[in-house]
Design a protein that fits this description.
The structure is a single chain. By secondary structure, the protein is an alpha+beta fold. It folds into 4 domains: about 5-240 and about 315-400, Nucleotidyltransferase, domain 5, CATH 3.30.420; about 240-315, Alpha-Beta Complex (Actin, Chain A, domain 4); about 405-515, Substrate Binding Domain Of DNAk, Chain A, domain 1, CATH 2.60.34; about 530-620, Substrate Binding Domain Of Dnak, Chain:A, Domain 2 (Up-down Bundle), CATH 1.20.1270. About 40% of the residues lie in helices and about 25% in strands. The protein is built from 15 helices and 26 strands. Strands 1, 2, 3, 4, 11 and 12 form a 6-stranded mixed beta sheet that branches. Helix 14 (about 565-585) packs antiparallel against helix 15 (about 590-620). The longest helix is centred in the C-terminal third of the chain and has 31 residues, at about 530-560. The protein starts with 15 loop residues before the first strand and ends in an 8-residue tail after the last helix. The structure holds adenosine-5'-diphosphate (ADP) and magnesium ion.
Length: about 625
């Protein structure tokens, strides 16, 4: 017989949650319906920056609010105070330089900062963040009862640092159920402790590359018990250093071009603006192959932009990334292991989203790391799992099922468009918008694909279906929403709906069951090996489609523009059209790219003339529909 505990005082069960109190970001998660989830009220991103900001009148701002204020006035904010928890003045002297307030030590060796809100210890600052986190949890749960929590700390934290974390929680009114190591939490999130017993235990390397710190921990998991074999790292190595690489590049080039005077260079607001621009650019380079680094400070007469390719970025950050490997070597040496002895590799920390970091880790450990969960959420998720277990819950229904391969659609030119990326937890659903390629196209054929490759012919086709009955419209006008829904049994239902008419078509297919582990591994290997060639092929397909669309648009409008364009311009457009279409018949990427760009240039006057005539008609009082 099971007993359920009731809190008779307020009839509200106190939620037991997991909290990742991070150096850069903090977040809270709970275990719900068989899996851990990050708590976020509607419209909230789920994390709070670990930042505290002080207004002149002593008002204290925390989290997002603090970070936003710190952009304009970094001199009133404290960042990264986790570094000071449980440490004395002498331990952290160099870090104190980054804090805009004086620090003193009391008779018990506890640091305190002289802030506009009075003397505040790192414990009190952390408590502010924990309070904010409790508030976020309360909003999400619709229940502001005091929290009981499992809180995580780095594996290298000593007793004093752990005790200081407990103190922070008690100041914030959060009951600490247990303090656990961040790498242990990450392994729990992936359920590695639940895997079949392995003779001698399972060794896990947890590579945690966050905002301001890097650490790698080797764990031995045996019979559900986690043991830290070794931990190594650098408390001054993180995503901030990658931002700094881009800031340095910007400063060097701005100086060389004479735009950055010594006076401007020391401007704190400019430094902060550059840092933010760098971080934005870095984030974009995680998903895109190029991005723009843009620094704008009109007050200083500065407006500078520069395109950065992913390859250039990877070269810039290589020295920083290599320093993480030094720590990995150290940890393995301490654990008396070689990379081949490691059974599992887990990625933690926002910076491990960077493709170059993932490649580096994979190459070093010769093993594909776990990437199925969001690396900056995985610690909080694991803490929630631990909280659930400590509260007497079981994990039998803990589903960590993810889609092994991406699911998507074939698009024009034989390219693929991924709708549900690989490693998405199931069940899940996602909707993407598509449109027609040709004028008056009344039907669309959908080819559903599974795989990582960029071209449809290299992926596995799961099935085809047609959406018909689209009313004749210009190319690009119909709006077709395609929804991919993958249920818990792995059944995929694809629905296409044309929004103006409501015309619908649907297909259900079973994606994964037919793939063996070997086939799956081979498909992934192929995609890694062919990544570069695939990228070119997909770009080629995209450019050819663009040339097709531009040609059609020219054919439509050239005749009507003949009266306003001079014959030379028209000849120029016709030449460019011929060259682009000839190039589109080849597979010469450079040539196709060049002729497409040339076509764009040649058609600029045509576009301008069209805009002009549209404007004139509007001025003459005609509505566009009558033209
Ligand atoms: P911490 O554990 O130190 O609190 P996080 O795990 O939240 O930190 O990581 C924060 C770092 O991750 C920041 O440097 C941030 O710029 C970086 N980061 C977050 N998302 C991305 C991304 N998409 N690409 C590259 N870096 C990212
Ligand atoms: Mg972290």
């Amino acid at each position: 017989m099971a007993y359920i505990e009731l809190n008779v005082l307020n009839n509200e069960p106190t939620p037991v949650v997991g909290i990742d109190l991070g150096t850069t970001n903090s977040l809270v998660a709970r275990f719900h319906e068989g899996r851990p989830e990050v708590l976020k009220p509607a419209g909230h991103p789920g994390h709070e920056p670990s930042v505290v900001y002080f207004d002149e009148d002593g008002t204290v701002r925390v989290g997002h609010d603090a970070r936003n204020h710190a952009i304009a006035d970094p001199g009133r904010a404290i960042f990264s105070f986790k570094r000071f928890l449980g440490r004395g003045l002498d331990d952290v002297r160099s870090d104190l330089a980054g804090v805009p307030f004086d620090a003193t030590e009391n008779e018990h060796g506890v640091l305190a900062f002289d802030t506009p809100a009075g003397k505040l210890t790192p414990q009190q600052l952390s408590a502010r963040i924990l309070k904010q986190i409790s508030h976020v949890a309360g909003e999400a749960l619709g229940n502001h009862a005091p929290l009981s929590a499992v809180i995580t700390v780095p594996a290298y934290f000593d007793d004093a640092q752990r005790a200081a974390t407990r103190d922070a929680a008690s100041i914030a009114g959060v009951e600490v159920v247990r303090i656990i190591n961040e790498p242990t939490a990450a392994s729990l999130a992936y359920g590695i402790d639940q895997k079949d017993e392995k003779e001698g235990g399972r060794t896990v390397a947890v590579y945690d590359f966050g905002g301001g710190t890097f650490d790698v921990t080797v764990l031995l998991i045996e019979g559900g018990v986690f043991r830290v074999l070794a931990t190594n790292g650098d408390t001054h190595l993180g995503g901030d250093d990658l931002d700094r690489c881009l800031v340095e590049l910007a400063r060097t080039e701005l100086r060389e071009s004479g735009q950055l005077t010594d006076e401007a260079a020391s401007d704190a607001t400019l430094r902060q603006a550059m840092r933010l621009a760098a971080e934005r650019c870095k984030h974009e380079l995680t998903t895109q192959t190029s991005s723009e680094l843009h620094v704008s400070m009109p007050e200083l007469g500065l407006n500078w932009r520069r395109t950065i390719g992913r390859a250039e970025f990877e070269q810039l950050i290589e020295p920083v990334l290599l320093r993480t490997l030094t720590a990995c070597r150290g940890a393995l040496a301490d654990a008396k292991l070689t990379p081949a002895d490691i059974d599992e590799v887990v990625l933690v920390g926002g910076s491990t989203r960077i493709p170059a970091v993932q490649r580096l880790v994979e190459a070093y450990f010769e093993r594909t790391p776990h990437t199925g969960l969001d690396p900056d959420k995985v610690v909080a998720l694991g803490a929630a799992v631990q909280a659930h277990v400590l509260a007497g819950g079981t994990r039998d229904i803990l589903l960590m099922d993810v889609t092994p391969l991406s699911l998507g659609l074939e698009t024009m030119g034989g390219a693929t468009s991924k709708v549900i990326p690989r490693n998405s937890p199931i069940p899940c659903s996602h909707t993407e918008g598509f449109t027609t390629y040709a004028d008056n196209q009344t039907g669309i054929e959908f080819n559903i694909l599974q795989g990582e490759r960029e071209l449809a012919k290299d992926c596995r086709s799961l099935g085809q279906f047609k959406l018909t009955g689209i009313p004749p419209m210009a190319a690009g006008a119909p709006k077709v929403a395609v929804r991919f829904a993958l249920d818990a049994n792995g059944m995929l239902t694809v629905t296409a709906k044309e929004e103006t008419t409501g015309q619908m078509a649907e297909i259900a297919v079973e994606p994964m069951n037919s793939l063996s582990d070997e086939e799956l591994e081979q498909m992934l290997l192929d995609s890694y090996e062919n990544a570069e060639a695939d990228f070119d092929a997909s770009r080629l397909a995209g450019l050819k489609t663009e040339i097709g669309t531009m040609t059609k648009a020219c054919e439509r409008s050239l005749a009507s523009a003949e009266s306003v364009l001079d014959p030379e311009t028209i000849l120029d457009i016709q030449d460019a059209l011929a060259a682009a279409n000839a190039a589109a018949a080849t597979d010469d990427l450079d040539l196709v790219q060049r002729t497409r760009d040339e076509l764009e240039r040649a058609t600029l006057p045509l576009a301008a003339a069209l805009m002009d005539s549209v404007a004139k008609q509007a001025l003459a009082g005609k509505t566009l529909g009558e033209v």
